[in-house]
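Sharing in case it's useful to others searching the archive later.

Someone asked me privately for the predicted structure of DNA-binding transcriptional regulator, ArsR family, so I'm posting the question and my answer publicly. Question first, with the sequence:
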Amino acid sequence: MKIQETLHKNSCTLAAMTERGIREIHDSKVLAAMSHPLRRRLLDVLKVNGPSTVSALAEKTGQAVGNISHHLKMLAASELVEEAPELARDRRERWWRRTSDGFKWSVSDFRDDPVGEAAESLALEHQVAIARAWLANWQSYAPEWEEASFDSNAWAWLTPAELGEIKDQITALISGWANRELPDDGQEREPVFLFARGMPGKP
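And my answer, the predicted structure tokens:
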């Protein structure tokens, strides 16, 4: 299959995924399935690059094909990914895609469930790991990427409602950029990881 044809199929599938919206997770088994570090990375790769074959995912992550297949099946069992047979060139080739554009859950739904606490901790570790990777490799990027990257933080006196308002504003801002239709302007773009957190704390 030509690269152009693959990109076209991927773009069409990604458009369909965007329409599926955000999946709300209330089942701790689903949360546990997506919390595994490699599975979380597979979900990220499928989000950033679109549908992919098992062999391509193995090459991207440096894992054995059999290991990738195992974890994809675990994700599929929780309906986090699904096969995309229409993209296969033959019966041996297996393509996979995400079943939704994003995921969200509330800690309150898992207040007495250790899986919820573990998932939140692993999510934070995942975010920090990406930030650390940038700090370790920023010199491999063009200077303008260093100038554009940012770390913004502050202390503020807030009510729960005010913190919720900030959450809604930031979530809408990030979602708007993440789910926009990419402009056909010839500009070269890199995957950029955006995340923000706000919670009560003490200096």
